[in-house]
Amino acid sequence: MFTQKDEDLLALLRVNAREPVASLARKLKLSRTTVQDRIPRLEEQGVIAGYAVRLASAVDKSGIRAYVTIAVEPRRQVDVGRALSKLPQIESLHTVAGKFDLVALARTATAEDMDRMLDGVGLIPGVTRTESAIILSTKVDRR
C-alpha cells in the first residue's frame, strides 16, 4: 500500500536522494527506523527504480538540447518510435495527447548536428510533421 508518507518521502528523495535517513525522518516526523524500512520497501515494489547522477548545469553545458514534437500517420507510431529509439541523439521519447503524437528530448554536439538529426527525423516513414524547441536554460529540474 502506498501512503501519503511514502509520497512525502519520495518528494524529499527527488530533491536529494543522498539526504541522511535521520534528516528525512525529522522532516517526515517519523522514526529513523521507519524511514530506513520504507526506502528498501519502495525499491522492492519498483516505486523507486534507481538513483542517478544529476550534473550541475555548469558541467552539463555540452551540446545542444531540444524538445522535438512529432506528428505520426495513423497506426505508424510503433514503427516511428522504433526508428527514433535507434538514434543515439534521442535521450527520451514520450507519447503525448494533442496535435502531436510523440515528444523527444534530443541532444547533439552542435547546432549543425541537431539540424541534420532533425532532417533525418522528418524522413522517417510515417512522420508527417515535426516542431522543435531548442532548450536555452533549465530553471527547475527535479529528476
Order of helices and strands: HHHEHEEHE
Order of strands, widest sheet: 2-3-1-4
On the 0 to 100 scale, the average pLDDT is: 90
Number of domains: 2
CATH architecture name of the largest domain:
2-Layer Sandwich
Strand content: 15-25%
Q: In which range does the helix fraction lie?
A: 25-40%
What does this 3D model show about the protein?
The protein is α+β, with helices and mostly antiparallel strands and 143 residues long. The protein contains five helices and four strands. It has a four-stranded antiparallel beta sheet with strand order 2-3-1-4. α2 crosses α3.
Topology summary:
Elements: H1 4-15, H2 21-28, H3 32-44, E1 64-72, H4 77-85, E2 90-95, E3 102-108, H5 111-122, E4 127-134
Antiparallel strand pairs: 1-3, 1-4, 2-3
Helix pairs in contact: 2-3
Would you summarize the structure shown here?
With 143 residues, the chain is α+β, with helices and mostly antiparallel strands. It contains 5 helices and 4 strands; from the N terminus they run αααβαββαβ. It folds into 2 domains: 41 residues, Orthogonal Bundle (Arc Repressor Mutant, subunit A), CATH 1.10.10; 71 residues, Alpha-Beta Plaits.
Keywords:
21% strand; 5 helices; four-stranded antiparallel sheet; alpha+beta; 143 residues
